[in-house]
């Protein structure tokens, strides 16, 4: 028996409601199970329950064994004095409030159907499971319910991404331009160099970026200097010009190089090398005078693609690293890379800024994210193999949220899929 099943049973009233009694024999009538609380405190707030002839309004706490009340030290927490019913699987001890009044107990063990327990055990059976518990049945869940769940999951993921925005806003004293720059740097670095590029962005006074962004050589020189790329022997005129410019700017603006994580080249395809990405973001800031305002103002995918239509410097047409020539090719941001910037930077920022202003841009965000192609990775591939058709980036983001926050954490009964299968609504 697991506590999440007891939560599910109570929340959705999956028990014989007409025959409920406390362990002391008093009849129980549930008018309202209350609001499920996922944070600290009792498990369900503001329930309404008639016990005997008395209507009670208050909170409900759920445990496997009644003695868990003491194992969790609730007897020392005044927040639990508001509990009107203790719902347990096994009643092995009586529990009391601080005023010594006994808390009525409902023992669920004799009220749960055999069919529900079998369905629960089947859902969590690891037999012949290669990916997730519900892999054999997930495709049978109601399409309507599943699509609505995916939209909820997408906004849940958007809220999660917003935590970085909130953190950066606090650090920058509500400088939205600085926040955008920091987030773009992190996501230009992608998975391997994200933390490195983030450390570069955080080390820079954004006032310096504002002053030098129209001079691409200066901006690149600062990025490469902080990345530690001037540690090799001088190799060509471009390199020497950058190094000279950086020495001048470092002295002029008192640029600090401490706490920088050096970018990596290992395991990266050449077009993702940090040399190329730093040049591209320098071009982006040189191209737009008011990039934050521009991004907030646009509301279509085509306009966003136009903003990110940038190239690395001409030098990188024939190089991937300093001093080593390569076959000529323009290093332009690909649509696939721009899509990732939109997903991980632009839409979370739009969402947070709209909330900051008290506006609702959910429809605009949905229109953009649904216009993007789905992401491609092993998790998405696995869901495809098990009969889930993923149509766009909104759904792939939602699927990633479901897998990372529900499937891998065994929170199946907090998921529409698991609760549908257990309720026989698939």
**Rg, nearest Å:** 28 Å
Largest sheet properties: 6 strands, mixed
Low-confidence stretches: none
Order of helices and strands: HEEEEHEEHHHHHHHHHHEEHHHHH
Counting DSSP E segments of at least 2 residues, the number of strands comes to 8
Structural class: alpha/beta
> Percent helix among the residues?
40-55%
* End-to-end C-alpha gap: 23 Å
Shape: elongated
What is the count of helical runs? 17
Strand content: 5-15%
- What is the mean predicted local confidence, pLDDT? 95
Brief characterization of the structure:
With 426 residues, the chain is α/β, with parallel strands linked by helices. It contains 17 helices and eight strands. The protein has helices at residues 3-11, 68-71, 114-123, 143-172, 176-188, 190-203, 206-212, 216-226, 237-253, 274-287, 291-297, 301-307, 335-357, 362-371, 378-385, 393-407, 416-423, and strands at 28-32, 35-36, 44-51, 54-65, 83-90, 105-107, 319-321, 324-325.
């Amino acid at each position: 028996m697991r506590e999440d099943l007891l939560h599910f049973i109570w929340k959705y009233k999956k028990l014989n409601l007409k025959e409920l009694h406390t362990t002391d024999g008093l009849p129980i009538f549930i008018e309202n199970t209350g609001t499920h609380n996922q944070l600290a405190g009792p498990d369900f707030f503001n329930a309404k329950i008639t016990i005997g002839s008395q209507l009670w309004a208050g909170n409900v706490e759920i445990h496997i064994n009644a003695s868990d009340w003491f194992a969790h030290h609730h007897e020392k927490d005044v927040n639990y004095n508001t509990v009107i019913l203790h719902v347990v699987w096994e009643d092995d001890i009586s529990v009391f409030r601080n005023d010594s009044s006994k808390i009525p107990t409902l023992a669920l063990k004799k009220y749960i159907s055999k069919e529900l327990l079998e369905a629960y055990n089947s859902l969590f059976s690891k037999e012949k499971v290669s990916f997730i518990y519900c892999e054999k049945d997930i495709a049978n869940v109601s399409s309507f319910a599943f699509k609505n769940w995916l939209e909820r999951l997408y906004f849940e993921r958007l809220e999660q991404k917003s935590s970085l925005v909130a953190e950066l806003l606090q650090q920058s004293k509500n400088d939205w331009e600085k926040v955008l720059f920091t987030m773009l740097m992190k996501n230009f670095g992608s998975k391997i160099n994200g933390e490195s590029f983030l450390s570069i962005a955080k080390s820079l006074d954004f006032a310096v970026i504002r002053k030098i962004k129209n001079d691409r050589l200066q901006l690149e020189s600062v990025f490469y200097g902080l990345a530690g790329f001037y540690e090799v022997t001088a190799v060509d005129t471009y390199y020497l010009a950058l190094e000279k410019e950086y020495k001048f700017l470092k002295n002029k603006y008192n640029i600090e190089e401490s706490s920088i994580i050096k970018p990596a080249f290992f395991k990266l395809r050449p077009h993702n090398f940090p040399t190329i990405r730093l040049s591209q973001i320098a071009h982006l800031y040189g191209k737009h005078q008011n990039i934050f305002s521009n991004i907030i103002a646009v509301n279509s995918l085509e306009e966003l693609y136009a903003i990110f239509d940038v190239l690395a410097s001409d030098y990188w047409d024939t190089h991937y690293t300093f001093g080593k020539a390569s076959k000529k090719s323009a290093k332009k941001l690909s649509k696939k890379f721009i899509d990732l910037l939109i997903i991980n930077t632009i839409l979370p920022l739009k969402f947070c800024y709209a909330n900051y202003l008290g506006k609702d841009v959910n429809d605009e965000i949905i229109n953009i994210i649904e216009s993007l192609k789905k992401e491609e990775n092993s998790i998405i591939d696995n869901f495809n193999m098990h009969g889930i058709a993923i149509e766009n980036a909104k759904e792939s983001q939602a699927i990633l949220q479901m897998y990372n926050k529900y499937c891998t954490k065994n929170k199946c009964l907090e998921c529409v899929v698991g609760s549908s299968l257990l309720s026989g609504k698939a």
